[in-house]
Structures are given as structure tokens and as C-alpha cells.
């Protein structure tokens, strides 16, 4: 993980300039991109997750949804996929697995937006569609372990380079079990799978393969929670697990890969100098505008009297925010409302020819 430069200090000449920056590619952020596209405003999009859909994909992808207009039923993952496809016509630039950390207003009224991975944008408008917050990996709470993050300790993903020593895979779901099995199957030695209890949430065939690898000594199993670490300076060399009968079981680890799931955090948002109420962004419902000029919000993160955290409400808010941004970007200009069913201009933007 790279450090984020302090706000306002990153080189502005290296900035990506854009008319709109959308923070969050959940269902509302994806529809925000589409609504902006209809108004000829192209967007860059940043999301902490490595894929589109926000809560729909991360939390309940397989579940059916019944309250999307004109779609009697679809799964949450299908909805996210369709929204992603619908927005694609406007060729948004996506920046996955990155997190917006700072928004700093500039003297020329643009907004400097900086991310954890070092991206630096100069945006004329910003759309906060951050939902319940940035989905970030849950981490192991062990004193001193954070110093090895990105070099020997990894969360929710494996580094591209193959392991050269002992690997400790931590977690109880399919990602952890699959990773441990893959490493053992590929012939790597010194692989240990660890979980707090001897119950794993993975398909039966995968579990059977994991147990067989354990039985034949190709994979070690360690049940318990890590409580301490051993450092052979300058490297991490092992994690210690408290034994039920007392004492510590040490597991060698030149690399730790932990798959503990993700959880949402709104903490970056609280630093942006925007009026909040109960951890949500207060908006003007007529325009989607927040208290910071040029910054708009929609979806679960938006707050106003009577707000409902429903996808359909977020879609409406995204539409209003797009029109709010159009009026902000081109003040005093009159833009007649156009229909996608009949406007030659919109059909050209959508790349679907003339009205029938
Ligand atoms: C189990 C469950 C079932 C549900 N069922 C329904 C239903 O049937 N019908 C319905 O209408 N609603 C349902 N909902 C609610 C619905 O999922 C939410 O209203 C919807 O996901 C909100 O969309 P959003 O785009 O505003 O936010 P989210 O879906 O939360 O997406 C926000 C995205 O922003 C990203 N993000 C946040 N901050 C940052 C940052 N600083 N930098 C980078 N990225 C960031 C996050 O990683 C995330 O991907 C359900 C919710 C749950 C949990």
C-alpha cells in the first residue's frame, strides 16, 4: 500500500483532468455515470473494490431483487452487471481497488481529488456515491504486523510473484480454502491454512480436496487465532497461535495471506469538509448539491428529510445530481429536457442512430 501525499502537495501537472469524478461504482454510481453521459459529461470513477456493483455485488450478489422498476426479478449481481453495461456506452474510465482520500478545492474552482494509490485528479465536479462507505479488507489486529503490509502481509488478494518460502493462509471462506489448496496443489511446500475454528465455508468438493491434502501432509492446518508475531530482523518469520492447553504454537510464515472479508468505512468522507448529518452527506434534493461547491451526492450516502436507502431512490437522486451539475458547469444556459426515445442528439450519444 502506498502512502497518500498530504492534501494539496501532489504535483498538479501530473493530474488527470476530468469534467466529473464519481466516487463509488455501486448501483447508484454506475447509474450516475449513465445520467452524466446523457448530458455529455464524461466521468472517471474510483472504487475501493476491484469490481462494480458496491453492496449488490459484495454483500448479496446471488439474492433476487424484486423492487427495480420494470424488472420483475433479477439477482443483485445481474442488476450490477446490467448497470455496468448500460454505462459502458459513455466510456467511463474506471479505477478499481483504490480509495479516494482527499478532496481539496482549488483557486480556479476545480476540485483536487487524491487517492490512496497516488492518483491525482483535477475535476470540475465530484459525485459522492459512496453508499455505506469504501469496502476495505478486514485486517489482523496484531501489534507490529502492519509494518509488513504489502511486503510480507497481504489482505484479500495474493501478490503476482510466487511464494519463495512458508505461506500462512488465514481465513475460513472459499477464498482462503481455494488459495491454500491452489498453493499446495501447485507443489509449494510449507503451506498452512489457519482458521479460528475447524469449520470452513466452501463447496463440498473443495473441502474434500483440502482435507485430502492435509491427510497426505501437503497442507498443514492450524486452528486458532494468531496472538503474536516473531521477527527475525528485518523480516517477519512466524505467527504464534495460543494453544487451548496453554503455550504458543508457532507457524513459519515468510508470507501471510489473510482472507477475512471486507467492511465499509466512511472515515475518508469525514475529512472532506462537507456538511454531514448522522454519517451521511446532506444534499439539496433539487440539485443533489452538497455544502461544497461542485460536489454532489446520491444514493445511500445522501441525506435529506424522508430519505430511503433504496436503489430506486438512488437512481432518482443520480438523475437530479446530473442536472444539478449541468446547471453548475454551464450557468445561465438553457438546456431543454430531451427524451432518449425521440432526441436525435441523445440517440447519437447513445450510438443507436435516428429515432424510429
Ligand atoms: C442484504 C441486502 C439486501 C438489499 N436488498 C435491497 C433490495 O431488495 N432493494 C433495494 O432497493 N435495496 C436493497 N438493499 C440496499 C441497496 O443495496 C443499497 O441501497 C444500494 O447498494 C446503495 O447503492 P449505492 O451505490 O448508493 O452504494 P453502495 O452499493 O454501498 O456502493 C458504494 C460504493 O462506493 C465505494 N466507495 C465508498 N467510499 C469510497 C471511497 N472513499 N473511495 C473509493 N470507493 C469508495 C464502495 O467501495 C462501494 O463499492 C439491500 C442491501 C443489503 C445489504
The backbone outline, from C-alpha atoms, is elongated
Query: Can you write the helix and strand succession as a string?
Result: EHEHEEHEEEEEEEHEHEEEEEEEEEEHH
- CATH architecture descriptor name of the largest domain: 3-Layer(bba) Sandwich
Largest sheet: 7 strands, mixed
Gyration radius (Cα, Å) is: 24 Å
CATH topology of the largest domain: FAD/NAD(P)-binding domain
CATH class of the largest domain: Alpha Beta
Bound compounds: flavin-adenine dinucleotide
The level of helicity is 10-25%
User: Beta fraction of the residues?
Assistant: 25-35%
Beta-strand segment tally = 22
Unreliable runs: 1-11
Number of domains: 2
Distance between the termini: 52 Å
Q: How many helical stretches?
A: 7
CATH-defined superfamily of the largest domain? FAD/NAD(P)-binding domain
Amino acid at each position: 500500500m502506498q502512502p497518500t501525499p498530504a492534501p494539496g502537495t501532489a504535483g498538479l501537472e501530473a493530474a488527470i483532468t476530468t469534467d466529473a469524478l464519481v466516487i463509488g461504482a455501486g448501483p447508484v454510481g454506475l447509474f450516475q455515470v449513465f445520467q452524466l453521459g446523457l448530458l455529455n459529461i464524461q466521468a472517471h470513477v474510483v472504487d475501493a473494490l476491484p469490481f462494480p456493483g458496491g453492496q449488490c455485488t459484495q454483500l448479496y450478489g446471488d439474492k433476487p431483487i424484486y423492487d427495480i422498476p420494470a424488472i420483475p426479478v433479477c439477482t443483485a449481481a445481474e442488476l450490477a452487471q446490467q448497470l455496468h453495461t448500460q454505462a459502458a456506452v459513455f466510456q467511463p474510465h474506471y479505477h478499481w481497488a483504490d480509495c479516494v482520500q482527499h478532496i481539496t478545492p482549488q483557486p480556479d474552482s476545480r476540485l483536487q481529488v487524491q487517492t490512496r494509490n497516488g492518483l491525482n485528479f483535477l475535476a470540475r465536479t465530484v459525485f459522492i456515491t459512496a453508499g455505506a462507505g469504501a469496502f476495505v479488507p478486514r485486517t489482523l489486529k496484531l501489534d507490529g504486523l502492519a509494518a509488513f503490509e504489502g511486503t510480507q502481509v497481504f489482505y484479500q488478494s495474493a501478490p503476482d510473484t510466487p511464494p519463495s518460502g512458508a505461506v500462512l493462509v488465514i481465513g475460513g471462506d472459499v477464498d482462503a480454502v481455494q488459495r491454500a489448496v491452489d498453493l499446495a496443489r501447485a507443489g509449494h511446500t510449507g503451506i498452512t491454512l489457519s482458521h479460528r475454528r475447524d469449520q470452513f465455508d466452501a463447496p463440498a468438493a473443495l473441502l474434500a480436496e483440502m482435507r485430502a491434502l492435509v491427510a497426505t501432509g501437503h497442507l498443514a492446518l492450524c486452528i486458532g487465532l494468531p496472538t503474536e508475531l516473531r521477527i527475525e530482523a528485518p523480516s517477519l518469520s512466524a505467527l504464534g497461535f495460543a494453544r487451548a492447553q496453554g503455550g504458543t504454537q508457532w507457524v513459519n510464515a515468510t508470507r501471510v495471506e489473510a482472507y477475512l472479508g471486507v467492511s465499509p468505512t466512511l472515515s475518508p468522507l469525514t475529512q472532506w469538509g462537507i456538511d454531514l448529518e448522522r454519517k451521511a452527506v446532506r444534499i439539496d434534493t433539487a440539485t443533489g448539491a452538497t455544502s461544497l461547491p461542485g460536489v454532489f451526492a446520491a444514493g445511500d450516502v445522501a441525506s435529506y428529510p424522508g430519505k430511503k436507502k433504496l436503489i430506486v431512490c438512488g437512481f432518482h437522486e443520480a438523475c437530479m445530481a446530473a442536472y444539478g451539475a449541468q446547471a453548475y458547469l454551464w450557468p445561465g444556459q438553457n438546456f431543454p429536457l430531451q427524451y432518449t426515445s425521440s432526441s436525435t442528439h441523445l440517440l447519437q450519444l447513445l450510438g443507436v442512430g435516428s429515432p424510429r
